[in-house]
């Protein structure tokens, strides 16, 4: 296998870097380089800018409005954008429901949802998990009962990221309560439809990212069903594999490791910088080596996938390694920050002005991000579940 970057990929990297340098607004980049959640307005504005260049769907085929880029080009694009502080494009629409719609949905749904999404006009929420259905997702009970031209939806969803900004929700519902997986369908629900209530859940870092949602006799037009009734489980598996492959987050890990090096060079322990403490320095180099192998593993997976080799459960491997690395880097950032690592600066206070933060400019956001990233080994299917998938599919246990 050849791991050299093709000269065309290097030229592509330069092209992306120049575009980002010339077009990413400075205030968006400033907010993006903190470790807080991206403001939805920034994500939409950046999506619209990329759309002007035809780049707002790096992973989609050309016929659906995407770039048609190779997996390697997408990887390079993500790295360049993230390193410069560009907001991550919205995963819900780009990696999850968008591809489900153009693969399994109707042409009308593609025109109605995907096309405006690519212009930065629509935000999505993912309504899968419920109070008693997380790892055991097939046990969900939110019901959709057909009534003429509509489905009537009743139930409760939990942990919905970003629902407060969403215009639309892609939800898994039970259309046949007698069946488990075969009774599940996927439906698109307007976030402000009568009967939908969205309540905030405030997290450890004092941020509002999560929500619970209640559906009380919500009438949803039958045309909002995606694909066929009873096939929602198949579509969900397709979507979750995309979500997991994304969660290796090599660009985020790279940026966070660079920040850790900066903190370690700057902050002192017993009179000398952390970076000069042999034990601390050795731990950083161990993380660097873990990151290098994660990057190579990602490149290997991309190479295999490009050549049609789908034998490895790649999404699960990348998710486990990438998320554990995120947590380890965050732990060391907080440790090296010392007393400044003990203060939570809530997102709104810091990012939107009223900034009376103590300490160095890189301190705010580190603890909030560290606390939020406790969740990365849980969402998208917990790492315990991913290990079970690997044991079964890869090791044949
Ligand atoms: C920050 C965050 C954002 C999220 N965003 C969304 C979202 O936008 N939309 C959405 O639908 N959901 C979202 N989720 C929900 C997420 O998908 C679930 O939390 C996850 O699937 C785990 O489900 P659970 O919380 O019900 O835990 P449970 O399934 O109850 O699991 C609890 C613990 O038991 C372990 N466990 C469970 N079953 C097994 C098993 N068979 N073998 C070994 N161990 C097992 C799990 O690994 C976990 O450690 C989000 C969660 C978080 C924390």
UniProtKB/TrEMBL annotation:
Keyword Flavoprotein: yes
Ranges for domain Acyl-CoA oxidase/dehydrogenase middle: 127-218
Domain Acyl-CoA dehydrogenase/oxidase N-terminal: 9-121
GO molecular function: flavin adenine dinucleotide binding; oxidoreductase activity, acting on the CH-CH group of donors
UniProt cofactor(s): FAD
InterPro entries (alphabetical): Acyl-CoA_Oxase/DH_mid-dom, Acyl-CoA_Oxase/DH_mid-dom_sf, AcylCo_DH-like_C, AcylCo_DH/oxidase_C, AcylCoA_DH/ox_N, AcylCoA_DH/ox_N_sf, AcylCoA_DH/oxidase_NM_dom_sf, Mycobact_Acyl-CoA_DH
GO cellular component: plasma membrane
Acyl-CoA dehydrogenase/oxidase C-terminal domain segment(s): 230-394
Pfam family, one: Acyl-CoA_dh_N
Key words of the record: FAD, Flavoprotein, Oxidoreductase
Similarity-based family: Belongs to the acyl-CoA dehydrogenase family.
PANTHER family: ACYL-COA DEHYDROGENASE, ACYL-COA DEHYDROGENASE FADE29
Protein name stated in the entry: Acyl-CoA dehydrogenase
Species per Swiss-Prot/TrEMBL record: Sphingobium baderi LL03
């Amino acid at each position: 296998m050849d791991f050299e970057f093709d000269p065309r990929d290097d030229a592509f990297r330069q092209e992306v870097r120049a575009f980002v340098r010339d077009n990413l607004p400075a205030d968006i980049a400033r907010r993006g380089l903190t470790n807080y959640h991206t403001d939805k307005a920034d994500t939409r504005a950046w999506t619209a800018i990329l759309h002007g260049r035809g780049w707002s769907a790096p992973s989609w085929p050309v016929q659906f409005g995407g770039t048609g880029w190779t997996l390697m080009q997408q990887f390079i694009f993500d790295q360049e954008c993230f390193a410069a502080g560009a907001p991550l494009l919205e995963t819900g629409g780009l990696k999850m429901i968008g591809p489900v719609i153009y693969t399994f949905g109707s042409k009308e749904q593609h025109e109605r949802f995907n096309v405006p999404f690519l212009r930065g006009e629509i935000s999505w929420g993912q309504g899968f998990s419920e109070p008693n259905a997380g790892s055991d997702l097939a046990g969900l009970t939110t019901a959709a009962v057909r009534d003429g031209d509509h489905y009537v939806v009743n139930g409760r969803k939990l942990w919905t990221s970003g629902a407060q900004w969403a215009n639309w929700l892609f939800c898994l519902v039970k259309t046949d309560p007698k069946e488990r997986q075969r009774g599940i369908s996927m439906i698109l629900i307007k976030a402000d439809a009568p009967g939908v209530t969205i309540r905030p859940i405030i997290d450890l870092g004092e941020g509002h990212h999560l929500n619970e949602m209640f559906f009380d006799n919500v009438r949803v037009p039958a045309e909002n069903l995606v694909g066929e009734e009873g096939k929602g489980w198949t579509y969900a598996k397709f979507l979750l594999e995309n979500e997991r492959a994304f969660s290796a987050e090599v660009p985020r890990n790279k940026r966070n490791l660079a920040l850790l090096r900066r903190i370690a060079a700057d902050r002192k322990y017993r009179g000398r910088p952390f970076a000069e403490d042999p034990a601390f320095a050795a731990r950083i180099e161990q993380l660097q080596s873990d990151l290098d192998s994660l990057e190579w593993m990602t490149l290997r997976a991309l190479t295999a996938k490009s050549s049609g080799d789908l034998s490895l459960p790649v999404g699960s491997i990348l998710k486990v390694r990438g998320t554990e690395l995120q947590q380890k880097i965050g732990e060391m950032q907080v440790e090296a920050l010392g007393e400044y690592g003990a203060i939570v600066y809530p997102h709104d206070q810091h990012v939107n002005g009223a900034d009376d933060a103590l300490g160095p400019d890189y301190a705010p956001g580190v603890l909030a991000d560290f606390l939020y990233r406790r969740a990365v080994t849980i969402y998208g299917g917990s790492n315990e579940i991913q290990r079970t998938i690997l044991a079964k599919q890869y090791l044949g246990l």
